[in-house]
Each structure stands twice: as structure tokens, then as C-alpha cells.
Amino acid sequence: MNENRMIAVLALVLLTPGLIWALGDFRAGKVRMMLFSRRRSTVETYRDTDPRRFWAYTAFNLAVCAVVGVFAMLLFFKPE
Predict the structure, then answer these.
(1) Which residues contact 20 (CB under 8 A, 6 or more apart)?
(2) What's the pLDDT score for residue 79?
(3) Residue 29: left (phi > 0), alpha (psi -120 to 50), or beta?
(4) For residues 61 and 33, what is the distance between their CA atoms, to the nearest angstrom?
(5) What are the structural domain ranges in the chain?
(6) With contact defined as beta carbons under 8 Å apart, do 30 and 47 qualify?
(7) Do residues 26 and 51 lie in contact, with contact meaning Cβ atoms separated by under 8 Å?
């Protein structure tokens, strides 16, 4: 396994817990902004109280997960 594939696998391993937490929060009707560290934001937004911020945070979290996932796949399948 070359270095690119190892970095891609590590990126996906780090992305998975954040994605699971974000999905669990979304199902519960609350959302927290995902940051680029292990510490998650303590500011929660609920779907019932502030739907506009809820959907904005959800879109940001989805964008972060998509970007990391796409670049991890590009690194994994990068020709040598």
C-alpha cells in the first residue's frame, strides 16, 4: 500500500465517527457545527426553534463530509 492510499484510508477512518455523530444529531432534530478537530461545537441548534440555522449547519456538515470523502477517494485511486 503506497502513501496516498494510506492517507486516504486514514481520512476515511477519521471521517466515519464525525459522520455518525452528525447523522445521529440530525435524526434527533438537533445539529452541531462540525469543526476540523475532534472537539465538536457545544452550540446546538434545534429544528423546531431555528430551522434556517439547522438546515445551514446540516448543509455545512454534509459539504465537509462530501469534500473529505471525495478527496479520500481521489487519493485512493490516484495512479502511481
Answers:
(1) none
(2) 74
(3) left
(4) 7
(5) 3-76
(6) yes
(7) no
- String of DSSP letters for 17-80: HHHHHHHHHHHHTEEE---SSSSPPS-EEETTT-HHHHHHHHHHHHHHHHHHHHHHHHHHT---
Q: Is residue 31 within 8 Å of residue 62, measured between CB atoms?
A: no
pLDDT one digit per residue (tens) for the chain, 80 residues: 688 888 889 888 988 888 888 888 889 998 887 765 546 567 788 999 999 999 998 898 888 888 988 998 888 887 76
Q: Which residues pair with 31 in a beta bridge?
A: 45
Cell of 11: 481520512
List 30's β-bridge partners, or say none: 46
